[in-house]
Amino acid sequence: MLALQGDFREHAQVLRELGANVALVRRPEELLQVDGLVIPGGESSVMDKLARTFGLAEPLRAAIRGGLPVYGTCAGLIMLADTILDGMNGQQSLGGLDIAVRRNAFGSQTASFETDLDIAALGDKPVHAVFIRAPVVETVGPLATALATLDDGRCVAVEQGNLLGTSFHPEITGEYRFHQYFLRKLVAAAR
Ligand code: GLN
Q: Is 43 flagged in the annotation as binding?
């Protein structure tokens, strides 16, 4: 669990309830001890600055390139995107997902909203999704796969190999299926 900033406690709680052994990662040494990583929601520009200040950005990039399973929600999705649109001046991502993500894509008028999404990979029951100053995946490159779209067709969940990203926050709605889906990737990768 990347614990530089944001709602990592909520994610840790969900992961523990699913039986995972959760460690908080703030230093490069701690990254070497985990089989997967969740990057929480929060503020991606702050997370980026902290990751660079703590010397974590390069080790994280190397781990992602090396196949570490990583799930990013909201700001975490922005961190995983190869391209950030409307980033802060000088903002960098870690990359890994072949996507372009637009920060704060719903503007200040619609800072937050909730909706139900049909996500085939998670079964028939719709996912109740909460968006908070959320990004949208504006371009899905050939290496990434869209998992969920809004009614207007905009993409809000993607996967690519061991990487998973959502614009919304399953960790605050009692929706465990994304974390379960991610833990299955993690277990398969650890074999
Ligand atoms: N707008 C935030 C950012 O740019 C993301 C918001 C969130 O994680 N809920 O990082």
A: yes
Is residue 51 in contact with ligand 1, taking CB distance under 6 Å?
A: no
Q: 7 near 47, Cβ under 8 Å? A: no
CATH level 2 (architecture), domain 8-190 = 3-Layer(aba) Sandwich (3.40)
Query: 169 catalytic, yes or no?
Result: yes
**pLDDT per position as a tens digit, 11-20:** 999 999 999 9
Active-site residue 128, yes or no?
Answer: no
Cα 75 to middle of ligand 1, angstroms: 4
Q: Would you state the pLDDT for residue 110?
A: 65
pLDDT in tens, 78-128: 999 999 999 999 999 999 999 999 999 998 666 799 999 999 999 999 999
Does 75 sit in the ligand 1 pocket, CB within 6 Å?
yes
155 is catalytic: no
Question: Is 103 annotated among the ligand-binding residues?
Answer: yes
Distance CA 17, CA 167 (A): 22
Alpha helices in the chain (DSSP H): 8-17, 28-31, 44-53, 57-65, 75-80, 177-190
Domain ranges, ordered by start, for the chain = 8-190
Q: Quick one: pLDDT at residue 184?
A: 97
